[in-house]
Each structure stands twice: as C-alpha cells, then as structure tokens.
Amino acid sequence: MKLYHWGRAPNPRRVRIYLAEKGIKVPMEDVGDGPTLAADYYKSYPMSTVPMLELDDGTQIGEAMAICRYFESEQPEPPLFGSSSRERGLVEMWERRAYELALTGVAEVLRNTNPAFKDRGLPVYDDVVPQVPDLAARGKWRFAKFLDLLDEQLSSNEFVAGANFSVADITSLCAIDFAKVIKERIPQDKKNVQRWHDSVSARPSASA
Ligand SMILES: N[C@@H](CCC(=O)N[C@@H](CS)C(=O)NCC(=O)O)C(=O)O
Questions:
Q1: Distance between CA atoms of 94 and 75, rounded to whole angstroms?
Q2: What average pLDDT does this structure show over 120-129?
Q3: Euclidean distance between CA atoms 103 and 139, whole angstroms
Q4: Which residue in 117, 122, 154, 199 could disulfide with 129, CB within 3.0 to 4.6 Å?
Q5: Cα 25 to averaged position of ligand 1 atoms, centre (Å)
C-alpha cells in the first residue's frame, strides 16, 4: 500500500496526523511538483487530488476522512472517530463543520484570488475552472463563523468534539494552520481556540 500526499497541502496533513496519532506507518510518496501535482500522478488518479491511498490490489481510496476510516476499521485503538454513539455523532458533526466552514472557506479564498491557481479554481486537472474573486469574502466569512462556533464549544470542552482528541481536532487544526496562507490568524478574543490550538499543536503528531 502507498499513501500519496503533498507536504505543503492541508488535506494530506489530516491523514498524516491521524496516522501519527495511531502509530501506523505507511509508505508515502510526495507527488507535489511546485504549485501543482506531478503530471504522472494526475494521469494515474483521475480525481487528481491528494491524499489518496492505493491498496496492494490497486484500489484507490481518495478523500482524507475515507482514508482515515479505512485505518480506523483496521486498527480501532485509540478511537479517533469516537467510542459511544453520542461521541461518534459529535465527532462526525464537528469534523464536517471544520471541513466545510473552515478548511473549504480558506481554500475558497486562496484558490479564487492567488495567481498560482489561475484557471484552477477547484482542484481538477484537465478542466479549466476560472477563479471567481467574489468568493473570497464568502470564504473569509465561513472561516470566521467556524472560529465563533469553535470558541463557544471549547469554552466547556477540552477538545473539539468533547473530552477526547478526535479527527474533529485534526481537521480543525489543519484548517486553522492553513489559514496562514490567506493571512488569517486566531483573533485575540478567541481565547478558548488559542488555548486548544497551543495544546494540540504541542502533540508530536502535529509535525507529521
Ligand atoms: N475532499 C478532499 C479534498 C482534497 C484536496 O482538495 N486536495 C488538494 C490538496 S489540499 C489537492 O489535491 N489539490 C491539487 C491541486 O491543487 O491541483 C479530501 O477531503 O481529501
């Protein structure tokens, strides 16, 4: 098996942190080539995104959380998708919010304003997807909305989905760190987010 990733990108980082938390070692290949992915990779994987896990029988599993779920099923301990029904529901809910509001919000700003993504408004290879600069304001708003929600949630919870570290923390951390590329940082009044960010950034997995 092999995990295809890109050192500078936030979505593969979600999987790398997950694997580090689990103590799972997987052969990896960085398929970044400057501001894009390598042309050979685009040919071998039609969805043209990273991360992608290729199994020994050739099966390709894309989407960061799908890859994490594969490993969760192979090695359930420590549980990173929750242990009880309640916890699993909350982890799923917060992970999705972190992805849709924060990570996608930041990507919306970057991909629609940065010249490096000209005609690549969405991560696809063969199709021209023009940038829509008006989406930048909406992306910033989505990111800010997530920080509001998260600060409130972390006022009474140690981690994003409750008492235990989970994939919801992983996606939130990757999204907030990714926001550096659009010069958005944790505002000073978001003290709970800052406390949590300091703590999860200090985990060894954060540097994976
Ligand atoms: N929904 C996918 C998103 C994957 C994605 O957008 N990956 C970006 C890197 S963070 C990518 O492959 N970009 C390729 C490109 O920009 O050409 C997931 O959750 O894994």
A1: 22
A2: 84
A3: 9
A4: 122
A5: 22
Residue whose CA is closest, atom 18 of ligand 1? 63
The atom of ligand 1 lying closest to the CA of 64 is 20
CA distance 98 to 142: 10
Mean pLDDT taken over the chain: 96
Mean pLDDT of 73-99: 98
Which residue type, as a one-letter code, is found at position 110? L
Identify the CATH assignment for 85-207 out of 3.40.50.300, 3.40.50.1100, 1.20.1050.10, 3.30.460.80. Answer: 1.20.1050.10
Neighbouring CB atoms inside 10 A of 134's CB total: 8
At 125 the pLDDT is 65
Cα of 123 vs centre of ligand 1, distance in Å, is 6
Question: Is any ligand 1 atom within 6 A of the Cβ of residue 49?
Answer: yes
Cα 82 to middle of ligand 1, angstroms:
25
- pLDDT per residue as tens digits for the range 127-146: 899 999 999 999 999 999 99
Any atom of ligand 1 within 6 Å of the Cβ of 9: yes
- β-strands 2-5, 28-30 pairing: parallel
- Closest-lying ligand 1 atom to the alpha carbon of residue 9: 10
Amino acid found at 13? R
Topology (CATH) of 2-74: Glutaredoxin (3.40.30)
pTM of the model: 0.97
Q: Which two tokens stand for residue 89?
A: 């529901």
Domain positions in the chain are 2-74, 85-207
